[in-house]
Design goal:
With 82 residues, the protein is mainly alpha-helical. Helix content is 77%, strand content 5%. Strands 1-2 form a two-stranded antiparallel sheet. The N and C termini lie far apart (44 Å). It is a multi-pass membrane protein. Pfam families: Transgly_assoc. Belongs to the UPF0410 family. It comes from Trichococcus patagoniensis.
């Protein structure tokens, strides 16, 4: 059950980051989940573990990390299209 909860929270974090930036995450819901997981790792690595935690994710640094990740991915995808 914990794994399912982590998938849900990771997907929501990835979707929130994409909505905040107004950019779609490549891969749909799977991309949102991956962005949430990798963004959480990135955020906690850069900013530390602080704020409320849900499903093993620290919400504030995970959301910031997912936003950074989506920005980087969108820049890479933009340069590859040219």
């Amino acid at each position: 059950m914990d794994f399912l909860w982590s998938l849900i929270v990771g997907g929501v974090l990835g979707a929130l980051a994409g909505a905040f930036l107004g950019k779609d995450v490549p891969g749909g819901i799977i991309g949102n989940i991956i962005a949430g997981f990798v963004g959480s790792w990135l955020g906690v690595t850069l900013f530390g573990a602080w704020g409320p935690a849900i499903g093993g994710f620290y919400i504030a640094p995970a959301l910031i990390g997912a936003i950074i990740l989506i920005l980087i991915l969108s820049l890479i995808m933009k340069t590859m299209r040219k």
